[in-house]
Write a structure and sequence with these properties.
Blueprint lengths: L10 H9 L17 E5 L5 E4 L3 E2 L6 E3 L7 E5 L6 E5 L5 E9 L3 E6 L4 E5 L17 E2 L1
Antiparallel strand pairs: 1-2, 1-9, 3-4, 4-8, 5-6, 6-7, 7-8, 9-10
Amino acid sequence: MDQSKYNPLSPEERFVIERKGTEISFSGEYDDFYESGTYVCRRCNTALYHSIHKFDAHCGWSAFDKEIEGSVTRIPDQDGMRTEIVCEACKGHLGHVFVGEGFRGSRFNLIHQGLNYLYSAEMKLEVPHKLQGHQLFLH
């Protein structure tokens, strides 16, 4: 894989994104963070989730009930119990999705090491997958 086309990653970020690692629950920078904006893949900057779909699932990871259409791929885990989610663009590990829980339908649990948050003063419902030319600012 040609790493030169991706953002540089810390060893912890590489562990999560490339080796499907995890982090300690309730330790991530976005766990209790609800500003208006868009969450993007830390490795390739693909827009993944809008903050309007983030909610507190009391699980220790950022939870969303809807992804940006076409931004993530669902892959059944080898354990047969969970479904992994990866960035559609770079195939980096993001976390897991759980379907049929409560009233929201789906719960996407995102590992913070795989995300960056982009602040948007004018939150738009549709942000293109590649963020070139948009006025979004890294938090």
